[in-house]
Design a protein that fits this description.
The chain is of the alpha/beta class and about 550 residues long. Helix content is about 30%, strand content about 25%.
Length: about 550
């Protein structure tokens, strides 16, 4: 493990230092350059001049005179150059851990998952706990949650703890339940649910109930977090993501980011949102942090949770679930608690981002903003993360309250069948309503919610303007009236993400004074079919005028 950490961190350091000489004026030339201006209009260029500070000093047109002797030159031989993507909602450390631990995200049945779990346990006999995640009973067509007995059949000799894909539920075997001391008499914590068979815990723990098992799970060591962060950065840069919002940064996560930055190996830009008000205050004291490591890291906001997720029936709904009439999900906080936390964050200038998936949760957050907006004025950029199910009556309130809708296109294409089952057709009018948000004048910031979904921005971009999955289903798109245009989706995956993080004056598009964060790709995405767009390969990724990723040949 230590050897692997050293190799990956060393690779990250080397990756961040390759290519262009430090503090030199450079020219990236002979490109099919495409970006957007501040108004969302597409612009074209054939070369970029980059200053010593890593910012764009000029976009050059065909036939325009080039510097006679730039300090360095990168001839791209006509390849397509775009601004780097910004994922407005991800979980950086979790992405790395998912890649390094047992990953069930591509399993298509319970039996396939059990076989993979058993094989992983056999290949890792020294692990005291088997840790991983990514499972989704909806993808398995199971019609129920998996049970501890299912998991015992794969691994019975030691504890197993596996997060659901959305992170809002987890699956334990009998050994894990025993190790945590959970019995039929264990009380369910507020904001959680223990799935049961009779009176006994069945094996799945939803939302806050996960803490009952987590208290017994061995926590990652700092070296494990360093490895996970380096792995996550490698994945993000390979997808062409040059900046991301990290939603729910813990103190341990922040320290890992600082360690990577201290080594000079932090390449991707991270806009951090602390996991709760206390975390943000412990990191920043009385205000958000400044940008650190040359604009690579800043904690500027606070992440709060109003409810759980739709797939685990933890999303808080105004009416019961259509496929579980005895359940309506759960709110994580009372109205007073939510407002008090938002006030405490706002007093010190922290931006507030609140997870809200169900229509009742979204209404609660909108009500809280409405209650405090006259006291905490100015450019607050309140964020609602996901905003998946919104009562149609509440949709106009996003605009009137100046709320950013931070949404994830691939959630719609992954959830569409499940959402219909959970809600019924009559309650879908405010679901995944991207086009309505834009028509109402609401700023959109797109992301992936990785590792819940793949961080692949090309899949997200295609899903946004087609409302179809990778196989082209359904024909014509799911609820196609909520499609956005190709260009609107691109804006939301670049400038929209920067705006949502108060960073639009630093990065998000290619223009004079903006950071030279860009990618070289193998095709023109504005001319590609949705299928071809999903197949786009990133050849190079540059951050601040430095090449930080090159795709391996073959």
């Amino acid at each position: 493990m230590i050897g692997s950490i050293r190799k990956l961190v060393a690779a990250a350091v080397a990756c961040s230092l390759v290519a262009t000489p430090a503090l030199a004026d450079g020219l990236v030339d002979n490109v099919n350059g495409i970006s957007m201006d501040a108004n969302g209009n597409v612009i074209h260029f054939t070369g970029i001049l980059i200053g010593k500070d890593g910012k764009v000093t000029r976009l050059l047109q065909s036939g325009e005179k080039r510097p006679a002797r730039p300090d360095w030159l990168s001839d791209q031989k006509g390849r397509t150059l775009l601004p780097g993507f910004i994922d407005a909602h991800g979980h950086v450390l979790e992405l790395g851990f998912r890649a390094l631990e047992l990953d069930l995200s591509d399993t298509k049945s319970l039996d396939e998952a059990k076989a993979r779990i058993a094989a992983y346990a056999q290949a890792n006999p020294d692990k005291k706990w088997i840790i991983g995640g990514g499972w989704n009973q909806e993808k398995w067509g199971l019609g129920r949650f998996p049970t501890a007995a299912d998991l015992d059949a794969a691994v019975g000799d030691r504890p197993v703890w596996l997060e659901r894909a959305d992170g809002h539920a987890a699956w334990a075997n009998s050994a894990a339940i025993k190790a945590a001391g959970v019995t039929a008499k264990t009380a369910t914590p507020p904001g959680g649910r223990i799935e049961k068979i009779g009176a006994e815990p069945a094996g799945v723990f939803v939302d806050s109930a996960q803490t009952l098992i987590e208290k017994a799970v061995p926590q990652p060591l700092p070296k494990d977090r360093d490895l996970a962060l380096a792995k996550a950065q490698e994945i993000l840069l390979a997808f062409g993501i040059t900046a991301t919002s990290d939603m729910g940064t813990s103190i341990d996560d922040w320290l890992a980011m600082r360690r990577l930055g201290d080594r000079g190996a932090l390449a991707v830009r991270i806009m951090s949102y602390g996991l709760g008000v206390d975390t943000a205050i412990r990191v920043g004291g009385s205000s958000p942090t400044p940008w650190l490591y040359g604009g690579k890291l800043r904690m500027a906001g606070v992440k709060l949770f109003a409810d759980g997720a739709l797939g685990s029936r933890g999303a808080w709904l105004l009416k019961p679930y259509s496929d579980a009439p005895s359940q309506s999900g759960a709110g994580f906080m009372t109205d007073d608690v939510l407002q008090n936390l938002m006030v405490r964050a706002s007093m010190d200038g922290w931006q507030v981002a609140v997870h809200a998936i169900g229509d009742k949760a979204n209404r609660q957050v909108l009500d809280a903003i409405d209650a405090i907006k006259d006291t905490y004025k100015g450019d607050r950029r309140w964020r609602i993360e996901h905003a998946q199910i919104v009562d149609p009556a509440d949709l106009p309130r996003f605009a009137t309250l100046h709320v950013i809708a931070s949404m994830q296109p691939t959630h719609a294409t992954s959830d569409m069948k499940m959402a219909e089952a959970r809600l019924g057709a009559d309650r879908l009018n405010g679901a995944y309503a991207w086009a309505t948000m834009l028509r109402n004048g609401v700023p959109l910031a797109f992301g992936s919610d990785y590792p819940v979904e793949s961080p692949d921005p090309w899949a997200g971009w295609a899903a946004a303007f087609t409302r179809q999955d990778a196989s082209g289903e359904p024909f014509g798109g799911w609820r196609p009236q909520e499609r956005v245009t190709r260009e609107q989706a691109w804006w939301a995956f670049t400038e929209g993400g920067a705006y949502a993080g108060f960073a639009e004056d630093k990065f998000g598009r290619l223009a004079v004074g903006q950071a030279a964060d860009f990618i070289i790709v193998d095709r023109d995405p504005l001319l590609s079919s949705p299928t071809d767009l999903r197949a786009t390969k990133v050849e190079e990724t540059w951050v601040g005028g430095y090449k930080v990723y090159t795709r391996k040949a073959g």
